[in-house]
Task: structure prediction
Amino acid sequence: MGADYMIELECRPKQQLTADGIVAKLKARSQAEAVLEMARANGDRRPPSEITFTTVLMRPQGRTEAEVSVQALLDEAEALTACEAECRRCPARPDAEAFGCKGYVNYPVQAATEQWLMSRLPDTLDGIAGHLLKSAVKDLGWDGSYTANMRAQGDTFFESRTPITRKWGGLFSRFVLTSDQLWQMMFGLGSLQPSHCGMVSLFLGLPSHQEMIGTAPPETTLALIQAEAARLIASGSGTQTATMARFVGAMAVAAALDVSLFIDG
Result:
């Protein structure tokens, strides 16, 4: 369980397979590879066509179960292969991964991941990122209630029962932000417009497309943002932090391309 996202740049693979089709095929491939890896680790050397498992789907009419083979899922995902080379040349990705326009953030969110996100916020409110952060929270009413409702459901969505808090300023000019509010900015508003993506990725320390307007050609701006995003992702390799870093990078890339970021949380 988790939140899907996709940079909504039109391309031939999306036209050919549809965005939903790409998501379904990526999930099928990921599931097949995970089951096959587990089978091999347990000494099962049968061909993928003979390795089966039960999938459970929650539909409006209730819970349904189906027996599927690993090979059937690999076959379903085979259409991705023909598009991979083209996808690796696409600008709509925060790193070198094929189909990088699409990502997935797993629940529950680990406390360490929340801590990492909050540590990326500006150290001071004096700069453009800090000024925008304070103004946006006040003007747009991001109170964190969306996330608080999720957190109240035990450890389904968040490992920690309480949000992390950052504080700036002194006694009479204090500004406080919680990780509930930050999560709401990212996942609680539905699909995100390019300007919002640029603003939030700026809050989290990536170079902003808006900052660079007039100072570099668009292709140079995008290359700089992608390079910073790739470094950010690599810094959290092997952890949920890397997954979250890809999302932050996707926001910055969507802003640079002036396209929306689809969110299905």
